[in-house]
Amino acid sequence: PTPKELTDFWEAEWGVRDAGKIKFKAPEDHPSKFLSHRGDLVPLAPEVVTLECGRGAGSVLTALALAFERHASAEVLLSGGG
Fold this sequence. Notes:
Layout: H1 3-12, E1 23-24, E2 51-52, H2 58-78
Antiparallel strand pairs: 1-2
């Protein structure tokens, strides 16, 4: 997926406000510092992608982290685990 597809999903499905402000740091061999929101694909695991937000927007990353925790817990319950 592209960064835009992910941030659109996080906003629409997980309720993470202003997720579109999140920047995806590009891999070292990439020509720019950040991935293009529409033109680049986010690398898949096991690649690690660092997320950044502009000044004063750290609450967006906090909301995203909480959404990941909430949805990871739901996945475990839905799959019959934990």
